[in-house]
Amino acid sequence: EWPVTVIPNAIDTEFWKPIDMRISRNILNLPNDCPLICFGAIGVNQYHKGFDILKSSLKLLKNEIKDLRLIVFGQSRPKNDIDLGFPIHYTGYLNDEISLRLIYSSVNVLVVPSRFESFGQTASEAQACGTPVVAFDFSGPKDIVCHKETGYLAKYCDDQDLAKGIKWTIDNQKKLKKK
C-alpha cells in the first residue's frame, strides 16, 4: 500500500549522442571499411565481465564476419597477446567522456557479456550514441536493451547465442540505427 515511484537512471542525451561514424573512426585512427566490435573493462581477466565468453563467441565468428576487429577500452595491450584470428585494438584507460563517446560512435556494436551487471551504464551510453548493444538477457542489461530493436539479448552465458547476436546486430545495423 506504499506508493512506489520508479526513477530512471538519467543520462544526459545532450552529451551522449551520435558522432558521425566516419569522423569518429578517423579521429581515433580506426579503419573505416570493417565491422568493429567493442568491449569495455578495466581488465579482460575480471571473471564477472565475461571476456572469456566473448572470446569464445568471437572465435565462432572469425570466419563468418569479414575483416572483423575488436576494440577494447579501459585496458592497455596485455603482456601476452590474445589471439582471436583478427586484430584487437586496445585504447587503454580513458580519462574523459569525449573519448568514450567517440569510441561508442565509431563501433558497430558494444558487447556486454557480463555474468552480472547491476545496471550497465556503458550500454545506456552506447545506445544514446546510436550504437546497438549485445548483452545477456540477465541482470541490468535486460532492462536497457530492447531485443532486436536496440540490440540483442542472448541466453545467459551462452557463447553461441552471444555470437549469433553479434552477427545479427552487424547484419541488421541499418535497421537498428533507424530506431
Describe the structure.
It is a single chain. The protein contains 6 helices and 6 strands. The protein is α/β, with parallel strands linked by helices and 179 residues long. A 6-stranded parallel beta sheet has the order 3-2-1-4-5-6, sandwiched between helices. Helix 1 (21-27) packs across helix 3 (97-106) and helix 2 (51-61) packs across helix 5 (159-171). It is globular, with a radius of gyration of 16 Å. The N and C termini lie far apart (38 Å).
Shape: globular
Distance between the termini: 38 Å
Task: Provide the low-confidence segments as ranges.
Answer: none
The largest pleated sheet is described as: 6 strands, parallel
Residue-averaged pLDDT: 91
Question: How much β-strand is present in the residues?
Answer: 15-25%
Query: What is the number of strand segments?
Result: 6
SSE order in H/E notation? HEHEEHEHEEHH
Strand order of the largest sheet: 3-2-1-4-5-6
- Count the helices. How many? 6
Helix/strand/pairing class, anyone? Answer: alpha/beta
Give the C-alpha Rg: 16 Å
What is the helix fraction of residues, given as a range? Answer: 25-40%
